[in-house]
Specification:
Layout: H1 3-12, E1 23-24, H2 32-48, E2 54-60, E3 63-70, E4 72-74, E5 79-80, E6 87-88, H3 93-106, H4 125-128, H5 133-137, H6 149-153, H7 161-165, H8 185-199, H9 203-215, E7 235-237, E8 243-245, E9 259-260, H10 262-274, E10 296-303, E11 306-313, E12 318-324, H11 330-344, E13 346-347, H12 354-365, H13 367-380, H14 387-400, H15 404-417, H16 422-434, H17 438-451
Helix pairs in contact: 1-14, 2-11, 3-8, 12-13, 12-14, 13-15, 14-15, 14-16, 15-16, 16-17
Length: about 475
């Protein structure tokens, strides 16, 4: 993937403090006491950065050996997070949706090689005849992701599976189904629609009956309700290193939306990988998605005010679940380091999110020097996240805070680093558009169209009213 492709992927998602040394120790996978102690150190470090607010659970053979809850579920009421706090699972829900699909495959209701045209969901014939259930499960369908400009402009307008399904039914495929792999939340919306059509039940009732009730997951709910007991509120960890309230920014659907506890998530994965309560290990169906005989499994979920991660060491029978009501992928950072410690006795230094580093560097050295020196300082600080994504996330955060001059400077740096990427000009145009300078937005976006005449904005359904002959 070249840099322009990386930038496109990064945008589609839409003073670093480092521990002095990489931790190293003479531990082994059998030294549960040492592993639990290091897990505590890791969790405490992210808490002390002000970044992690949530719950963590480390288990050996399904039995907890370390648990912790830090931060606040509700900052206004000063209500602390606890083991019973519910958090949004984000894309971890896709594992639940995959289980529901494979259950219906085991029952003969759905076929993995069924085409979309078997379910009459409203897709054009030339699309519906090509895409299979198996390809949807494995992100090989060629369907784009749900984050179109229309969705970005008003995500809370899309309340139901049917609402989201209509977004991309007529969209061209990104590639011929089965020939490539591209992560698609939309593909899992389609799977939810297939489940409803094939069974005659709502997706919520399928989830409740076939997973929640079967495993007695009494602390898991779908959809979200703000009056659910022990429900956490969502806070973004912003570029200034502060937690600020954001609330719910998207409606639930089969690609993400369960609210659950660390204990219920552990129960789900233990049942899935070590038992037959959900899918039979004597059948080959489970192997279509879940490598139950493998050495490890990871699942991540993230979004504004949401971060969730599961890391399973199948070889040594450790399970790590971290759920947060803050974002910046903090939940991924913690289990990754615990798993690394289990495997090697060491883990990478702990740092604040890339956008916090970028913002502090920008403030320290000023806009002009930032453009010329940031890339080198970013790399020397050890950040591996694609720099285009970091700058885009920072710029969009500044736009949301109406910090127009700083946003223009950050996106200007993005353009300077990626002058051949239309996405960079789109982001800069969007900043001017949000600032009310429509003419400048159109002028800048015209440069994106010069580079790629068929390019469509990720943020404006009308391309800011710009066209090119």
């Amino acid at each position: 993937m070249n840099k322009i492709q990386q930038l496109a992927t990064a945008i589609a998602f839409s003073f670093g403090l480092t521990l002095p040394v990489t931790v190293e120790a003479e531990s082994s996978a059998n030294d549960s006491e040492a592993i639990a102690a290091e897990a505590r150190t890791i969790v405490d470090s992210y808490r002390d950065l002000g970044w992690f607010s949530g719950s963590a659970l480390l288990a050996k053979s399904g039995q907890p050996i370390y648990q912790a809850s830090v931060g606040l579920a509700n900052r206004e009421l000063a209500k602390p997070n606890s083991h019973d706090t519910r958090y949004n699972l984000g894309s971890i829900m896709k594992n639940f949706t995959a289980v529901l699909v494979l259950q219906q495959v085991e029952r003969g209701v759905i076929g993995l090689d069924d085409n979309l045209d078997s379910y009459e969901l409203g897709f054009p014939d030339d699309t519906a005849s090509k895409i299979t259930v198996r390809q949807l499960l494995n992100h090989r369908s060629g369907l784009p992701d749900v984050f179109t400009s229309a969705y970005r402009e008003s995500p809370l307008s899309f309340r139901t599976i049917a609402d989201k399904l209509a977004l991309l039914q007529d969209a061209p495929l990104l590639f011929e189904p089965g020939t490539d792999r591209r992560y698609s939340n939309y593909g899992y919306v389609v799977l939810g629609a297939i489940l409803q059509k094939a069974t005659g039940q709502s997706f919520a009732s399928l989830l409740q009956e076939n997973i929640f009730d079967r495993l007695k997951l009494e602390d898991s709910v779908y959809p979200y309700s703000n009056d659910t007991p022990n429900q956490s509120l969502r806070y973004t960890f912003n570029y200034a290193g502060e937690q600020t309230f954001v609330g719910v920014t998207e409606h639930h659907s089969p690609d993400g939306g369960i609210e659950s506890t660390v204990a219920d998530v552990l129960t789900f994965y233990r049942a899935l990988f070590y038992g037959d309560e959900l899918l039979s290990h004597q059948e080959s169906t489970i192997d279509e998605y879940f490598p139950v005989d493998g050495e490890s499994w990871v699942a991540f979920g993230g979004g504004t005010g949401v971060s969730a991660a599961v890391e399973l060491d199948l070889k040594n029978d450790y399970q790590i679940v971290v759920l947060a009501n803050t974002d910046g992928l903090v939940a991924e950072e913690i289990p990754g380091r615990i798993y690394s410690y289990i495997q090697t006795g060491s883990y990478d230094p702990i740092k604040l999110p890339p956008i916090v580093f970028a913002w502090n560097k920008y403030r320290d050295i000023g806009p002009k020097t930032f453009k010329s020196e940031f890339q080198a300082s970013y790399e020397s600080a050890g950040y591996s996240q694609f720099i285009g994504r970091t700058l885009n996330e920072l710029g969009m955060s500044l736009v949301n805070d109406s910090e127009w001059t700083d946003a223009f400077n950050i996106f200007g740096t993005l353009v300077e680093l990626f002058p051949e990427a239309p996405q960079a000009y789109d982001s800069l145009a969007y900043a001017h558009f949000r600032a009310g300078d429509i003419e400048t937005a159109r002028e800048i976006f015209s440069k994106a169209l010069t580079l790629q005449p068929a390019f469509s904005s990720d943020y404006s359904t009308e391309n800011y009213g710009t066209s090119i002959d």
